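Reader question, answered in our methods column.
A reader sent in the components of a multi-part assembly and asked whether the whole thing could be modeled at once rather than chain by chain. We filled in our standard form and ran it. Here is what they sent:
COMPLEX SIZE: two components
ENTRIES:
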Amino acid sequence: MLWLSKEQARNRFQSELEFIQCLANPNYLNFLAQRGFLRERSFINYLKYLLYWKEPEYAKFLKYPHCLHMLELLQYEHFRKELVNAQCTKFIDEQQLLHWQHYSRKRTRLQQALAEQQPPQQQQAPPHANAAAK
Amino acid sequence: MATVLEKSTKERLLSVVDDLEVLSRELIEMLALSRSQKLPQPGEDTQVPRCAVILELLVQRDREFLQLMEVAQQQGKVHQEMQLLEKEVEKRDSDIQQLQKQLKEAEHILATAVYQAKEKLKSIDKARKGSISSEEIIKYAHRISASNAVCAPLNWVPGDPRRPYPTDLEMRSGMLGHMANLPTNGVNGHLPGDALAAGRLPDVLTPHYPWQSSDVSVGMLPPHHGNDFGLEPPGHNKENEDDVEAMSTDSSSSSSDSD
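And here is the structure of the entire assembly that came back:
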């Protein structure tokens, strides 16, 4: 069954765009795994088909680029099997968040370092996000 | 160039010398004999012509000898020239060999240079193919950073609902989420996703979040691919709606129980 109208194609584009970005959510991945979707042949083929989002002409529409990495990992059966495990997805979630915060924390550290170097009159209170740094 | 049948000059000279020797010996013998005899003999008449013959032969041989000596001299000169020329030839030969070596070296160097140039051209082509305007890259970088999709906001604390991925709420309010909200029996017992695939559903989209789509993507189409991966399209979206509340993105909670 081929797409016949531009409208249909556009809808399909949008739905695939949304779906692929949902894959960036480890909890959603766990959800899919626990319902056995990741074992279905057709779903696996669909995941392979979605790899076209890696091309620059398509990738530029992705707002959450983490999804591409998840998609690549999802091509491997071992990964798909592991996703059933809730602890696994929790770990992925934590690591993802830490990675997400990495750059901000680096920046805060730099700012702190700068603040310490400055003369006493111009001392500023360390940024609030410092409390989040672990 | 001399054929094997011709005698060499040396041999001829030697044979002439031999002849001369023989003739002169005979002559001297005859003269000695005639001297010692002193008496005219009846055979004497024959001796004079014999002497004359020998003399003639002697003279002839002498002439031959002189000629051969000249020939030998000329041959000597020619031989010398030949030697000179041979030396020249050797010199030229070594020159040619030297040039050959240099040519080979040059060829080798050029071949390497050409090869490297070709490699460079290949990589230039490759780079050109993958080139993206810096403006686009900057735009995209801005897009994903400004929304905190790849970098946490500076004031993020645990408890902040923002995440590097679309949250429950965002997923539910997207096109897929809305599709799941439609009547689940769908048309002819097919799932809503199938109906969408068949193009019988209206367009219900009003994206609330920029991650779902944008006006920019209006011209964009997915790669042409039939629904032949044995796929039941967003059938899972149906469950998405039911259990999406159970899915929690709060990092402090444990994993979701479904069912």
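What stands out: Chain A is about 65% helix and 0% strand. Chain A touches chain B through 69 residues (CB under 8 Å).
Send us your own complexes using the same form.
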